[in-house]
Amino acid sequence: MNGSQSLVKQIVDQLNNANLDGTNEVVIAPPAIYLLDVSRNIKPPVEVAAQNSYTVNSGAYTGEISPEQIKDAGIPWVILGHSERRSLFGDSDKIVADKVKAALAVGLKVIACIGETLEEREKGVTNQPVWAIGTGKVATAQQAQDVHHDLRKWLGQRVSQPVADATRIIYGGSVNAKNCTELATGADIDGFLVGGASLKPEFIDICKCKKN
After folding, report:
1. For all residues of the chain together, what is the average pLDDT?
2. Which of 106, 112, 127, 165 would give a disulfide with 147, using CB separation of 3.0 to 4.6 Å?
3. Where is the signal peptide (predicted)?
4. Residue 92 shares a structural domain with residue 197
């Protein structure tokens, strides 16, 4: 829940003038109130995502945005299951799964988030670094790669190897211009979900980060 009209315009102008070559797919997710304005003013190859959507397409759910409304507005992407939605608003795995199903059903492209808290990591429960999001603590490139490798292996075993190979698994957790190049060396790291750094000029450098 960051930004203002002036900041959003500044970010859009920076991206439009960044000479992005389309090698890296770039998707930005402004607050809902700015979605239409950003969508109308951002230039390709950058695309736009909503930060959340609901499990159904219509009804008495004041304050929610349906996946069908997002699709109707011409927004192609939606982020679901972000750690803040889970920790602050009670989005359980079941709720996130229902949201993903509803979004896919109307043709939206989904960035589905999974992760762990610092307490869970210290107990050895899971590996994904929610503990790194917005904290300045960053998983090492090897830690991130190990988790992404395990996730891809899980997809191969539980779904199919073609699906595992085709799924893009992106890392989110205090990514910035200084660490993105090293993180990108991981064979199973297919990109980044950028938080605070997306509000700063260094976001352009992250967008241009190349996988070796």
Report:
1. 90
2. 127
3. none
4. no
